[in-house]
From TrEMBL:
<dbReference type="InterPro" id="IPR028082">
    <property type="entry name" value="Peripla_BP_I"/>
</dbReference>
<keyword id="KW-0238">DNA-binding</keyword>
<dbReference type="GO" id="GO:0000976">
    <property type="term" value="F:transcription cis-regulatory region binding"/>
</dbReference>
<keyword id="KW-0805">Transcription regulation</keyword>
<dbReference type="GO" id="GO:0003700">
    <property type="term" value="F:DNA-binding transcription factor activity"/>
</dbReference>
<dbReference type="InterPro" id="IPR000843">
    <property type="entry name" value="HTH_LacI"/>
</dbReference>
<feature type="domain" description="HTH lacI-type">
    <location>
        <begin position="16"/>
        <end position="70"/>
    </location>
</feature>
<dbReference type="Pfam" id="PF13377">
    <property type="entry name" value="Peripla_BP_3"/>
</dbReference>
<protein>
    <submittedName>
        <fullName>Transcriptional regulator</fullName>
    </submittedName>
</protein>
<dbReference type="InterPro" id="IPR010982">
    <property type="entry name" value="Lambda_DNA-bd_dom_sf"/>
</dbReference>
<keyword id="KW-0804">Transcription</keyword>
<dbReference type="Pfam" id="PF00356">
    <property type="entry name" value="LacI"/>
</dbReference>
<dbReference type="InterPro" id="IPR046335">
    <property type="entry name" value="LacI/GalR-like_sensor"/>
</dbReference>
Amino acid sequence: MGSKGKKSSKDDKQYVSALQVAKHAGVSRSAVSRAFTPGASVSAKKREKIMEAAEALGYQVNDLARGLLARKSRLVGLVVTNPELGYRSHLVAALTKALIQRGSVPIVINTGQTDDELVAAQKTLFGYRAEATIILSGSPPSSFVDLARRNGQPLIVLGRSETGADDVNIDNEGAGREAARQFLASGCRKLGFAGALSRTPTTVEREYGFQHEAELLGAAVKIGNGRNSNYAGGQEAAEQLFSGADHPDAVFCVNDLVAFGLIDYVRRHTKLRVPNDLSVIGFDDIPEAAWDAYNLTTFKQDASVMAAHAVALLDRRDAEPDHPPVHERLTTRLIERGSARLRTVIPS
């Protein structure tokens, strides 16, 4: 067949191979492999020639092929439900950055909502033989945890706990207790909690700490729950809390998104003023909490700190695969802004 039937060289363009680098540098293919393998034996002069050839050709090591040969990839799966929402989006961003700095390749697995989406996500993660899995708080199915465990894959769980897995958690209950103490010490007497019916371990702990501490100090708590812990859920919780005359004068919200929804509802549907008539505390301290529209007093949950702890646990598990599960609990810090009139309270 004549040249008219052939594809152009542009169509046939492929990634630069190690063999091409070897020919360009005038060395063997195995020498190129050794030059890009830490600790492998190759002379300094030969390594320099190989690196110059690789730079000239634009060569990059095929890490996928290396992983297949070694039966260990550098892929780390991040399993998360609704990764685009609130604090979770910032945690995913911090984790991907920390993992890339570690030399890992993060894969974000959005578990979705339907059974078909869950099955597809699960097949994707384990089909690529990820080195480890990090499961974020929310509601990823327990089947992920079970399958990872049966395949001997290291697990790091954030914002929740699973048997046999390392985890990093926030002191959610302690924050809830502090919120109750802050409100009561500042003269508030009718406390409210804005939560969600889509309960997760973190939201349950925050609610328990707040309600239990308030009751210990002689105050009752009115609870409003939206369907989800998002902006719309905050509006739904606010409607329950402020639909009658006996409304709270202080509300602890399960997260900042719920607080935003609640504050906007109060502004549009009641005559109450924040913070003059109503104090509001959120949780997470996402960037929007500092916006003038909300100026939200909230507990700071630092995504970069949690990501650093997660990566440190991965490194430890890699070095000590038989070490007993590690359970870390991080503290929060109350960031005072203008949505709550508080007095200084010394944490107990």
